[in-house]
Amino acid sequence: MQARAGRPGKLLLAAMLAAVAAGPILNYGLSAISDLVITDLGITEAQFGLLATVCFAAGAIGNAAFGRFTDRQPDTRLLVLVFAMAAAALALAAIPGGYVLLLVAAGLSGLAQSFPNGVTNRILAERVPAEKRIGWIGIKQSGVQVSQLVASLAFPALAAWIGWHGANAVGAVVAGLIGVLAVRVVASVPLLPKAPTRIGPLPEGPAPIPAAPPNTTFLIYALAIFGFVNGMGVQATNVYLSLYAVRELDFTLVMGGVAAAAAGAIGVAARVGWGKMMSGGMAAPPLLLLLATLALAGAGVFLAAGATGSAALLWLAVALHGASALGVSVVLMAAVVRSVPASTIGMATGMVTAGQFGGFTVGPLAMGALIGSPGGFALGWGAVAWTYALCVALAGYLVLRRRRKDREAAS
């Protein structure tokens, strides 16, 4: 399995998608069988949320701390780290060692998510022709939702057959095998030749990727802040979606997993679609405003589903969640690739991803505390709605700022 030298194709894209998908498998798998795990370990909803908090806290620290490390390491070495840590986390979760061991596994899974965005963004910048990059971001970033889709379907089915520890053991083996193939594929694709210094007029026609502004510092911080706020709502929803369906709407464990899988499947399509819009030249701020508005509507529908006991409203909320909040990452990563040189792309990606993971850390823990209170899921969904309302305000500010800059440039 090797990609043709100098002509990166579907195998390279699949390898990047797999790298992005590997780390989150444990978290999504446990969320899909949350009711079983909570009952088996005798823990509270807040303690279950702490698993995701530990996972994403480790990821946030890793993304913030290892940005420069990522810039200095070969692509294949980083991919080995990603898949090895993801497989090790699943292997630890396969051991019936109790809640503390599962916390350790969750932390290792988070560390596995410290490197994929940085290394895959650099692979795009250094091995993939410019005209393909932004479109490919949408596909490779959908790896997270592919992970959600696969884990949400596979873990409940495997848990019913060989128990939830056995489901993690199967995941460890699969992650290791896919990792070997992904490393081989990336190693077979050479770096693009360095562009020569251009002399004379530029060719006519639109550039495949808009030119980066001279100062990207504000953009990177703005993307990180938006990622943090959106991330709180994303993982508060992802971690407790199956539990909500099972406990509040009387879904079976398998159907609760299907609900989470449906969000992942829609998220895959959404990330590819939003990536194509970005590759067509759409700016990030208006797209972030659209996604934040849809996510806010989705939180409202989740709240309405519980109030009315309507399964139809739950499925509508799942669709809105998958199409909006789960699509934000591709917009953030596309903005980074557009704006940052390849030599520092690992550090910039790390900053933005650390912002997202910071939100991922806070969201599940807060949601677990809220649904364990007398306010229950109604209070939890209300908090998620306020989170997305803040995203709308942030995106609106970025849109207005961009328009002001455009007017200043025109005058």
Automatic annotation (TrEMBL):
Record Gene3D superfamilies: MFS general substrate transporter like domains
Subcellular location: Cell membrane
InterPro entries assigned: MFS, MFS-Transporter, MFS_dom, MFS_trans_sf
Keywords from the named record: Membrane, Transmembrane, Transmembrane helix
Record's bilayer topology term: Multi-pass membrane protein
Residue ranges crossing the lipid bilayer per the database entry: 46-66, 78-95, 170-192, 218-241, 253-274, 286-307, 313-337, 349-372, 378-400
Pfam family, one: MFS_1
Domain named Major facilitator superfamily (MFS) profile: residues: 11-407
UniProt key word Repressor: no
Protein name as catalogued: MFS family permease
